[in-house]
Write a structure and sequence with these properties.
The chain is built from six helices and six strands, in the order H-H-E-E-E-H-E-H-E-E-H-H. Strands 1-4 form a two-stranded antiparallel ribbon. The chain has a two-stranded antiparallel ribbon with strand order 2-3. With 242 residues, the protein is mainly alpha-helical. 23% of the residues lie in helices and 6% in strands. It has one domain.
Length: 242
């Protein structure tokens, strides 16, 4: 009897968590059918699928998009001590960044499993195979990342010639659920900083007085703050630079 109760409670908890995520994304730009003109369909299906997921990128579970052969020009500067090199292929970039850029690099990506019965057709392709340009210039990062915050590199706080005061991994800031790190593979030690280190794509809050175009998907966000008040996100890593 106790086992059945535990199973029921676990099921309720899972459903509750799913409800929170759905409620969060509903009023954000990541609800693609609602905020992109001419698009229809299931919001979750633009990125996730409960079946056949991972065909295009087996390192990202339940991922519903395929995009191969992309090479990125990476960030570099004289003050960047953890440089990943001038260019990196898609497979070399951390899995978090790779997932985000499959839509935000401006290159069309393809759904692996279509909503409904999963039948692939020309009309479905036209509906779901969108590029970052559909989401506006700010969301279309492109493949040249030299003007963006560095991502896809191994986080090593000992490489800090500029005295940023980077916190140690698993110090309660970086490498935890607050600012998580990633690998290029789900079996790899998570040590790379990527888009998902700072951003939570399933934004769970509706901010008072703000609309969907002002959601920044930051991990520090609360119901009353977008997550970077007083540059809080920046200060979490660049401790000595303020």
């Amino acid at each position: 009897m106790m086992k059945k109760v535990l199973i029921i409670l676990l099921s309720v908890a899972i459903l509750a968590a799913a409800g929170i995520a759905l409620a969060g994304i509903n009023n954000t730009p990541h609800n693609i059918p609602q905020f992109v003109s001419g698009k229809t369909g299931e919001p979750c299906a633009y990125c996730h699928t409960p079946h056949v997921g991972g065909t295009g990128d087996p390192t990202y579970p339940l991922w519903n998009r395929s995009q191969n052969g992309i090479t990125y020009t990476m960030y570099s500067s004289p003050t960047f001590d953890m440089t990943p090199g001038p260019t990196r292929t898609q497979a070399q970039v951390d899995m978090s960044t790779r997932a985000c850029l499959q839509c935000h690099n401006g290159v069309a990506s393809e759904l692996i499993n279509y909503p409904g019965r999963g039948l692939k057709s020309a009309s479905a392709e036209a509906t779901y195979n969108f590029t970052g340009t559909d989401l506006g210039n700010l969301a279309n990062i492109g493949t040249d990342l030299r003007q963006e915050h560095p991502v896809g590199f191994t986080y090593n706080p000992s490489l800090d010639n500029e005295n940023n005061g980077f916190p140690a991994i698993n110090s309660g800031k970086v490498g935890t659920t607050n600012l998580p790190l990633y690998g290029t593979d789900i079996t790899q030690v998570r040590e790379m900083l990527g888009c998902g280190s700072c951003h939570e794509p399933h934004d769970r809050y509706t901010y008072t007085g703000k609309n969907a175009t002002q959601v920044y998907f930051l991990r520090n966000a609360t119901a009353s703050d977008n997550g970077n008040a007083g540059s809080a996100m920046c200060k979490a890593c660049h401790v000595n630079k303020y």
